[in-house]
Amino acid sequence: MPGANKIEYEVLEGWQQLPEGWSFVEVAGVATDSRDRVYAFNRGEHPMIVFDADGNFLDAWGEGIFTNPHGIYIGPDDRVYCADNFDHTVRIFEPDGTLLKTLGEKDQPSDTGFIQGEAPVQHSAGPFNRVTNVALSRTGDLFVCDGYGNARVHKFSADGEHQLSWGEPGSGPGEFILPHAIALDRYDRVYVADRENSRIQVFNTAGDYLTEWNHVTRPDDLYIDADDNLYVAELGERAGLGPNVEVSPHAPHARVSVLTLEGEIQTRFGGEDATAPGNFFAPHGIWADTKGDLYVSEVTYSAGGRWGMVPLDCHSLQKFVRIRG
To answer: What is the rounded distance in angstroms from the CA atom of residue 254 to the CA atom of residue 299?
Structure first.
């Protein structure tokens, strides 16, 4: 399904400059603000590291706050929304790290029957159980996908009041197996990366199912830019499966897809050699800045680096400069 536009990028190697002795460990999510400052939400000692567009270090914050950084979203007012996967909260910050609000109760997961490593989600419940990511509507409502320990999308008003939820565990329309990322377009359509069903489901803001696309492989993150390009980070079938799962050499590798809002493919990239610049092992976050340049973050350690599937120094944050389209 080729789209009308052909968008092309080139990877910018050695882009970001970390302070001496610092490490990301891995970067769970990435986003840019109105000034194209880049926020790397990572699992190292300094959970939020901020760079300018040239990769110069600007700031760091979040030490001692997060349990397991997972998803990040930055709103039009530059407020930063952070989903913490292990403590079941969404926190809202000013760009300098000042905490404004917390949604969910820290270390109090909702009851879904989920037991890590023992039992999958048995039934859906309220917010949150292993929450994954967030996005805002054009009116400021907050939509949260609640994935590893739940199978729901939750809608909150702009002031943080829970309004509705939808979704159940399963593979039918409106059902989820790990809703991992979420995005909204200017037409109030809600796109959900239903990762372990290898599809993107589309809803209206009331949770009514509209359609789905199945030409993606384990989508991890979604982002829609001002030109209605939908960016998809696809995990593929080689990472994040555990140390005892035999992976076929023919299994789909990780990649990035750029789609139209009708699901047409505009471009795809990412090759067999996961460690090569411009390719991916475990893409987990994706965002485009105001120039159309693209940032892709990866959970290289937890998705396989700890088991020796890739070197521990494999790239976990890459910048791609848009050169065409």
So the answer is: 12
